[in-house]
Amino acid sequence: MSGAFNARVQSRFLIGSSQADMLSELGREKFTTATYDKSVSRYQFSAVRDLQGLPCRRDWKILWNSDAGKIAEIEGLYIETCL
To answer: What is the CA angle 31-32-37, rounded to 5?
Structure first.
């Protein structure tokens, strides 16, 4: 399922498109954003949405790099953790 989410993310937020527009949309979808130290992570930024539940927790994570306010690289991950 992570592959399907990655494909959706990459088709929705195209390389070269506006990072500001993406952040607005992710905010409307209740994603929380963070900045990474580039020396520790391959990506500069992340956005995470988690859904706590029993027996499973679902996390959607979008990781990306930007250059001059444009998306330079992007990846989507879906993680499901069940008891």
So the answer is: 130
- The pLDDT tens digits of the residues spanning 61-71 come to 999 999 999 99
Q: d(Cα 65, Cα 16) in Å, to the nearest integer?
A: 11
**From CA 54, how far away is CA 35, in angstroms rounded?**
30
Domain that holds residue 68: 2-82
Decide: 83 and 57 in contact? Cβ < 8 Å.
Answer: no
- Number of C-beta neighbours around residue 14 at 10 A: 12
Rg (CA), the chain: 13
| pTM exceeds 0.85 | yes
